């Protein structure tokens, strides 16, 4: 970019890791609407808070009210939505936090593009796996009903595609694990990979 020069921070990410006593990165939750992304991201966030870990959740519905207001659900807008979220998540990771993103993020290539913004190991893709039939039964916001009635177009899983991850770091099957168990599986992964110390 012309006339714009990158300014290196005086405080490095490692400095912040040292101060916080834990590493940073992104927990990238992906899955169908109603699969449990928000519920699980918030359960993990609450657990991290209890453990004294600096964390935050970026949630699809909330971000679309502000930062990404005006973006719709056509392919181009979804791509831009996820591109921006990847960049924001990277800022959170740079700031030393463990950030969770809860977006459908239906396209594999967009998730891979987000992954490329991060250092090796710091992008943790979590497939929130739940069959469409169960998501549709849960239908926490009544959106599947609307989509089936044709009142919402381009609805993921109905008339817009979802590409499941081919090689995610974690698969959480929310149709067979409780919310508590699902959150603990994510925390166990963070301990195993030494994002958070074992003794916490
Ligand atoms: N057409 C269509 N398709 C899918 N979802 C829709 C649609 N219209 C509105 N909603 C609501 O928006 C939430 C998904 O937004 P995201 O930003 O996560 O979508 S995406 O990643 O850009 O595909 C999604 O939230 P979640 O249920 O939390 O996934 C829906 O509540
Ligand atoms: N094991 C589970 N994990 C996550 N959510 C679950 C689970 N079991 C049932 N649910 C329910 O499924 C719904 C998932 O909704 P939500 O978290 O908004 O999904 P998403 O963010 O993927 O659209 C919630 O009503 C939640 O209580």
From TrEMBL:
Q: Does the keyword Translocase apply?
A: no
**The APS kinase domain, residue ranges:** 24-172
EC top class, as a word: transferase
Binding of ATP occurs at 31-38
Indicate whether S-adenosyl-L-methionine appears among the record's keywords: no
Coiled-coil stretches noted in the UniProt entry, renumbered to this chain: none
Pfam families xref list: APS_kinase (PF01583)
Q: In which pathway does it act?
A: Sulfur metabolism; hydrogen sulfide biosynthesis; sulfite from sulfate: step 2/3
* Active-site residue list: 105
What InterPro entries does the entry give?
A: APS (IPR002891), APS_kinase_dom (IPR059117), P-loop_NTPase (IPR027417)
Function recorded in the entry: Catalyzes the synthesis of activated sulfate.
Q: What is this protein called?
A: Adenylyl-sulfate kinase
Q: What is the organism of origin for this protein?
A: Peribacillus deserti
């Amino acid at each position: 970019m012309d006339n714009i020069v990158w300014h290196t921070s005086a405080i490095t990410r490692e400095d912040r890791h040292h101060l916080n006593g834990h590493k940073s990165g992104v927990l990238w939750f992906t899955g169908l609407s109603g699969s449990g992304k928000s519920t699980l991201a918030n359960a993990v966030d609450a657990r991290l808070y209890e453990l004294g870990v600096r964390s935050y959740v970026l949630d699809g519905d909330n971000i679309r009210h502000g930062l990404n207001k005006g973006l719709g659900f056509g392919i181009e807008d979804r791509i831009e939505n996820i591109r921006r979220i990847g960049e924001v998540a990277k800022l959170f990771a740079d700031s030393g936090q463990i950030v969770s993103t809860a977006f459908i993020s239906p396209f594999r290539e967009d998730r891979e593009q987000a992954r490329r913004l991060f250092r090796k190991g710091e992008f943790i893709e979590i497939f929130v796996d739940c069959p469409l039939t169960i998501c549709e039964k849960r239908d926490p916001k009544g959106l599947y009903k609307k989509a089936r009635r044709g009142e919402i177009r381009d609805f993921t899983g109905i008339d817009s595609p979802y590409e499941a991850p081919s090689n995610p770091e974690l698969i959480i099957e929310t149709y067979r694990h409780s919310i508590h168990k699902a959150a603990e599986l994510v925390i166990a992964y963070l301990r195993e990979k030494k994002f958070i110390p074992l003794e916490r």
